[in-house]
Design brief:
Elements (H helix, E strand, L loop, with lengths): L1 H8 L3 H4 L19 H21 L7 H26 L8 H17 L3 H8 L3 H18 L4 H33 L5 E4 L4 E7 L5 E5 L12 H6 L4 E4 L16 H14 L6 E6 L2 H11 L4 E7 L6 H4 L3 H11 L3 H6 L2 H5 L9 H11 L2 H21 L10 E6 L7 H8 L6 E6 L6 H4 L1 H20 L7
Parallel strand pairs: 3-4, 3-5, 5-6, 6-7, 7-8
Antiparallel strand pairs: 1-2, 2-4
Helix pairs in contact: 3-4, 3-8, 4-5, 7-8, 10-11, 11-17, 13-17
Amino acid sequence: MKGTLDLITRPTTSEARPPNEPFRPGNSRHPSKGHIGLIVAGSLLSGLVAAIVLVAGPLGGSQEHVITGAVLLAFAFGWSLLAVLSTLWTDQPQRWAIVPAAFMGLFGAGLIVFAPDARALNVVSWVWPLPVFALVVWMIAIARLQLRSHARRWFLYPVFGVLALAGLGGAWQTVAAAVDRASAVMPGQLIDVGGHRLYLHCTGSGSPTVVLQSGAGESSAYWGWIAPAVARDTRVCVYDRAGRGFSEPAPSPQDGIGAATDLHTLLDRAHVAGPYVLVGHSSGGPYVQIFAARYPDQVAGMVLLDGQSPNVLTKLPGFPAFLNTYRTATALFPSLARIGVFRLVDLSSFGSLPPEARDEERATQSSPELARSQHEEFAELQTALKQAQALKSLGDKPLIVVTAAKDAPDGWLPLQDEMTKLSSNSMHRVLPNTTHASLIEDRGDAATASQAIHDVVESIRAGTPLTKP
């Protein structure tokens, strides 16, 4: 009797799945759970791959708001896939995933359309971390209820952790940057050079005046050992190129001529009389050479501290490929800086500088403003290098080339030797145990750099050729 009742009350196959309903592995009427783990992993991976393809491909080298917006749209695509595919192909529909998809999609599109400049992004930086935290908490709770799979621990929780860390880092960076600005002491002055103001700080007394030109992506802060040492002999001026340190950004990215014109206007309006001894470190080398080519009467001598040769594009193997790769990579730096990545990295950086210079350098290098400026500079560096080739000769003006030979790339030393030919009164000092960075940041190596500047100043004052120390 019981068997008969079971047969009568048990649903038939046609009742469980009507003949005209397509079979799906995750159909709610089907006892199989489907492949929810693969759906979760594949959807999240698809979003990540889409983000990488966008920023490394068609959007490579774009501005910060485009990069960040595109990454968010790609992640939104991944969450959308999770919501749709889990509903169609499994018996564990994760419809909640449409919420992070909508959040990231709208936020990403809004950045691209409405936040093209740094000021708008700075305002947004105060807003976004809290909603992200709230979203993460909600997603953890809803995923615990609706996803019965190891994929929750293996894939979703790590992603939630990354989102939470990004929100935490973003909040930390925004607050810390505000504290940096409020507590920063600006010993120099801001001078209008036409549409934007540049920072200039001069110390010491005497003639000729030494002007220190920083490398790519650097501020005046890292001259912490050299500027005070030179100030004991003569007047020395440090300044920040547009968009870094205390200086305001230029209305548009600048090539080498734009940077040289800015410096010329800055010195003129600050009433810093020439002629000058120009000192350039790294990519500051081409900038001082451009200045010397355009304003030869205002240059008394030059010191190149492991300066970049204008001929690296054609004579240094692999440099063009490196420059193209780095130019694309630096487009990501402002976005990474805005979530505190560089502030975290720089907690232990620049420790060999004097304390005040160290703290200022850490604050400066961790900012998205400097990262944006750095990207724009590398985008224009190829043009600046070609412009620096206009300097053919300094005549008999004293020139010292100081080369940091430790870890120098193949072909670097011959190019350094070549630059000594710019003057008939030149000298090449090779430092085998000094690196490109330590020449400025290490106290002992910086003393060697300061000595080279001192020797050029003394040669100018005495009117005699350079002699070996």
